[in-house]
Amino acid sequence: MPEVNFTINEQTGEMEMQIEGVQGTSCADVAKLVKELLGQPAREENTREFFARSNIKLPIQPQKRT
After folding, report:
1. CA torsion, points 49, 50, 52, 53, in degrees to nearest 10?
2. Burial class (CB in 10 A: 0-12, 13-18, 19+), 63
3. Using one digit for the tens of pLDDT, what is the confidence trace for 49-62?
4. Domain map of the chain by residue range?
5. Is there a contact between 30 and 2 (Cβ–Cβ < 8 Å)?
6. Is-above-0.85 flag for pTM?
7. Read out DSSP for the chain?
């Protein structure tokens, strides 16, 4: 299950967040939403989970031209 954890440093006020359970571009989408709600984190780096390939395969269907 996707989870967002964040920590705020009491002395500096800087926020750090970690997103777990979401892979690839979906993780970037979640991070963007969290940044809009909570502000920019002090630092940002992608984990192995970000670079993992999703097991979900979307069917591709050609569109008919009219």
Report:
1. 140
2. exposed
3. 777 766 555 565 66
4. 3-51
5. yes
6. no
7. --EEEEEE-TTT--EEEEEES--THHHHHHHHHHHHHH---S-----HHHHSPPS------PPPP-
